[in-house]
Amino acid sequence: MTIRQRDNLIYGGIALGSVVFLWWIIPAYTPPYPGYGVSAALLPNVTVGIILALSALALVRNALSHVLAKSKRTDESRSGDMREADRVHLWHLARFMIPCVLLMPAMKWMGFIPAGLVFMLLIQYLCGQRKPVTGVLVAVGIVGALYAAMRYGLGVPMP
Amino acid sequence: MIEVIIAGFIDALHPLNLLFVLVGVIAGVIAGAIPGINGPMAIALCIPLSYYMSPVAAIGFLVGLNKGAFFGGSISGVLLNTPGTPESAATTWDGYPLAVQGKGEKALRMALYASVTGDAFSTVVLILVAAPLAAVALYMGPPEIFALICLSMTIIAGLGTQSILRGLIAAAFGVLVGTVGMEPVSALPRLTFGLYQLERGISLVPIGIGMLAFSELIIQLERHIGNGGDACTMTFSAKPEDRFISWAEYRGLIKTLLRASVAGTVVGALPGLGAPVASFFAYDQEKKRSKTPEAFGTGKLEGIAASESANSAVVGGSLIPLFTLGIPGNVAAALLIGAFVIHGMIPGPLMFEQNARLIYAVYGSLIVANIFLLGVGLVGLKSFCKVVQIPAAILYPVIIFTCIMGAYLAEYAVFDVALMLFFAFVAYFMRKFDFNHICFIIGFILAPIWETALQQVIISSENSPFMFFTRPVAIILMGITIYVVIKSIRGSFRKTLTV
């Protein structure tokens, strides 16, 4: 995918999302005008309106640039491929996000310390830790320290 | 008034406050020394801890953290040639060559002295300038505040990003998220999607941790996994002249330090520019003034002095608009707004009337933090150097677990952890697609002030759209905002169409 194609996709998605907000979400989830002061929907409508206008503007700019590049055949930068750092690595994101999402339910089910230890061992493995002794020591150390600090230091109800 | 000032400074010298400032400075230096961790990230992670402190201790702790991180960033820059924070990049250009020559300790001492000098200068300016400016700012009504916030967000979106369109979209998105929760006039839930947890609104903690810390870790892990990280193999020379900065050397750099401190303070006071701009600008100016510009980049002390004093002067400078107008100069100051609000105070000119004692206590904490930074830096310099050697496979899991627990700690709510992960997810895509997450956070923080000002304008004018035309300052500010937006968008179109 080229940079321009990606930009068009993003701005198109934002514009579409803004329309959904303006027509459905804001009217459905804001209280009606109470008859005094200002409508609760004013600021959300203004901000989403700004987002819609700006994304439409960006789409127009991209379209103009595309037309111009076609006629001149000079636009290489925007039609070039993305840099590696700009690519979305969904698998990478998912493998860190999923354990984090599951941590709190796991803590409720297994308890803070066992769930924390399993989580730390897994995340360390995902981060490239291949030394089991170091991994266990770090997991026990950080989970124990945080448990002690939260439970006995700050008196926090544990998750 | 004198009693209030003295009482404020005495509050700052309370042993518990001193302890928290010290802990903040040490934690900040350690956080800054780790490549990829910066001051705002450390502040976001530590805001939940500040719930357990008194307001003075909490602000002192967070300010200490920020100051420590500015100096800490130079440690990995000098020793690894990998700046711990973006603002330390210019320090690296002369610090690393010195370290290669075995003079790493000397380079770090120079960075420390420059940081302390820049910081002290900007703190003095803050103390002298903030109160008179706040007195002037008190004459500003809701139309002026509304217009000023519009201008600040536009400048932040325009200067902090490569594309003003993306910056403004990010800021508007932040404002939209800031409207979730109770509507201020009718006190009815708004945009809560039927979730009762959202009725109290979204707090800064999950957004700060998710967007500043967690998403950054995920992106950095993309690079770190598979490579063992940078190893520090520097050796330090034992010769005193290679280790210490003599008084004569420091005195010879006084003009450089002062020029860079002025630049840093001014840049810090302008919303949106930030410490990296200050340090690059000061470095560049010093190079232009130098009789031997070709020596810059080969281990010149002037380069380190200019860069470090400028970036540290930003800390005090960024507090000037915060204390006088309630507008943050950078993201660290924006996070401090959140911390002030958590402790029941709204930053702005009224603080000098309503919380004068606290303001002077914060000034006291700033001075104390500066003294502690010098002491901690001198005593623990070699120990902090070891931090850069911690492998990513140990460090990153520890920070990830701390992020999750930090999000929980703020309100003891599992929902906040879910929110933190959601905003980390959002920030991951924002960063990948070049939408500035800093603009989002500043928009989110300024949303309630902006909305209140807008509502006051509309109510007091009885829905008259001509209210602004009766206020010259508001007209000027809105005029500048519109000019900046049109000019930036025109520039963006021109650039695209001429490629």
* Fraction in helix of chain A: over 70%
**How many distinct beta strands of chain B?**
2
Cα-based radius of gyration of chain A, to the nearest Å: 25 Å
Radius of gyration of chain B: 22 Å
The major pleated sheet of chain B works out as: 2 strands, antiparallel
Low-confidence stretches of chain A: none
Average pLDDT taken over every residue of chain B: 86
Give the tally of structural domains of chain B. 1
Structural class of chain A: mainly alpha
What is the number of independent domains of chain A?
A: 2
Order of helices and strands of chain B: HHHHHHHHEEHHHHHHHHHHHHH
> How far apart are the first and last residues' alpha carbons of chain B, in Å?
61 Å
User: If helices are DSSP runs of H or I spanning 4 or more residues, what is the number of helices of chain B?
Assistant: 21
> Helical content of chain B, roughly?
over 70%
The proportion of residues in beta strands of chain A is under 5%
